[in-house]
Amino acid sequence: MTAERKQSLALFLATLDDLLGSGYASKREYSFSKDPSSSDPPAQPVQEQKEQEPVALHAALKKPVPPDSLHRIINEVYICTACPLHKTRISGVPGEGVEHPVVLVVGEGPGAQEDKTGRPFVGPAGQLLDKMLSSIDLSREKQCFITNIVKCRPPLNRDPQLEEMEACMPFFSRQLALLKPKLILSLGRIATQWLLQTNETITKLHGQWKDYKGIPFLPTYHPSALLHNEMWKRPAWEDLKILRAKLQEYTDQKPELSKQKEPEV
Ligand code: URA
């Protein structure tokens, strides 16, 4: 399915969702048709309507609010216009992976390939990320969920601006609340500094466990930085081993460290 088709399908689903979720049928009880040919009942005098209101209103208020869901977030990301990034995107990139991940992986924002496909980390940096995860027996299909701070591509891959990250943050917070990951792995300076609200460099922060809303949080280098600079390959590998060691606390099996293989960068 093309990104454009996906977006219009998402728009249709979100509209349908809103109509059903906000009690369209019960709202119609209160609306007065201006069309003389309409078969709707004529408008009631204000006084009469007031007398009927409490019962009907009570019923409408009791309608359960639909619970949040990852599916709902996906649809909302596709049609989001909360910041200027929507004007230049092909597709929003909500994120993907398992519903209850061991590790939530967070990048900064989609690149060109991600924008075209609507999927996170599918370009060269994404391929390296998959290798890095697989070197410690993780994958987006089995134990991870991968997303970004901003869900739409910043033009020419520039850094996302503060207002853009702020506007997109509710999506991340809702994803976090639903996914309930055991650990968070943040990739690169932008995502790390934003989530930890610090100006410390990634060189200083990487490989040290932090806390994000009660969840152990490990910063490491962004895979695209590793593609550009060999120098960070070794420390990034050391970070993965730190993540691997922590993962042991969440699994019964003892890891077979000899099986770990340094990813090729
Ligand atoms: N870089 C990111 O930060 N996120 C992606 O999804 C792809 C590249």
CATH class category of the largest domain: Alpha Beta
Which structural class do the helices and strands define? alpha/beta
Ligands, ions, cofactors: uracil
Tally of separate helices:
11
Q: Sheet bearing the most strands, described?
A: 6 strands, mixed
SSE string, helices as H and strands as E: HHHHEEHHEHEHHEEHH
Q: State the end-to-end distance.
A: 32 Å
Overall shape: it is globular
Helicity level: 40-55%
Number of strands: 6
In terms of per-residue confidence, which ranges show pLDDT below 50 for 5 or more consecutive residues?
A: 21-43, 253-258
Core attributes:
six-stranded mixed beta sheet; 2 domains; Uracil-DNA Glycosylase, subunit E; binds uracil; 265 residues
Structure notes:
The structure is a single chain. The protein has 265 residues and is α/β, with parallel strands linked by helices. It folds into 2 domains: 3-47, no CATH class; 70-255, Uracil-DNA Glycosylase, subunit E (3-Layer(aba) Sandwich). It is built from 11 helices and 6 strands. The chain has helices at residues 3-21, 24-28, 46-62, 70-79, 112-117, 124-135, 162-179, 188-196, 202-205, 223-228, 233-247, and strands at 96-97, 103-107, 144-148, 183-187, 210-212, 215-220. The longest helix has 19 residues, at 3-21. It is globular. The protein starts with a helix and ends in an 18-residue tail after the last helix. The protein binds uracil (URA). Residues 107-111, 114, 120-121, 123, 125-126, 148, 224 line the site of uracil.
